[in-house]
Design goal:
Order of helices and strands: HHHHEEHH
Largest sheet: 2 strands, antiparallel
Helix content: over 70%
Number of strands: 2
Shape: globular
Structural class: mainly alpha
Strand content: 5-15%
Strand order of the largest sheet: 1-2
Number of helices: 6
Length: 135
């Protein structure tokens, strides 16, 4: 059973790595990386999120998220705004929003191609199983 679980875990990791490579390649013509798109996506979905919260959502350290946010500010994709108290929040610029929308379509295309072999019922079953595991 342990060997089987290790094999399943490795396959999940390989699928994730394949998605990351394919998404990065699809986003390259836009001049954006998977990590940058992910930050834009999560900020769009959580506009009041702190940098610390964004770091958690994007699986990064606070320091890495801070560095990424600064690079995205320098590129005109994000801007800093005042938050409650001393908090600093970030907001997507018009340019960042345009890039997020364009990138989303490319990401959707990559994922649709990847999951194409599964039927609608199999996708639903996979979603249910993953929901059980992730919580």
């Amino acid at each position: 059973m342990t060997r089987e679980l290790s094999r399943i875990a490795l396959r999940i990791k390989r699928l994730q790595a394949r998605h990351h490579r394919a998404i990065d390649a699809a986003l390259a013509p836009l001049g954006i990386s998977l990590v940058q798109w992910d930050a834009l996506r999560h900020l769009h979905e959580n506009p009041q999120a702190s940098l610390h919260e964004l770091a958690g959502l994007t699986f990064q350290s606070d320091q890495a998220m801070g560095t990424l946010a600064q690079r995205m500010i320098d590129r005109g994709l994000l801007e800093r705004t005042a938050g409650p108290g001393r908090a600093v929040r970030h907001r997507i610029t018009a340019r960042g929003e345009q890039l997020r929308v364009s990138a989303q379509q490319l990401v959707d295309d990559v994922l649709a191609e990847s999951f194409h072999p599964l039927s609608a019922a199999e996708l639903q079953q996979l979603d249910t199983i993953l929901d059980k595991l992730v919580g």
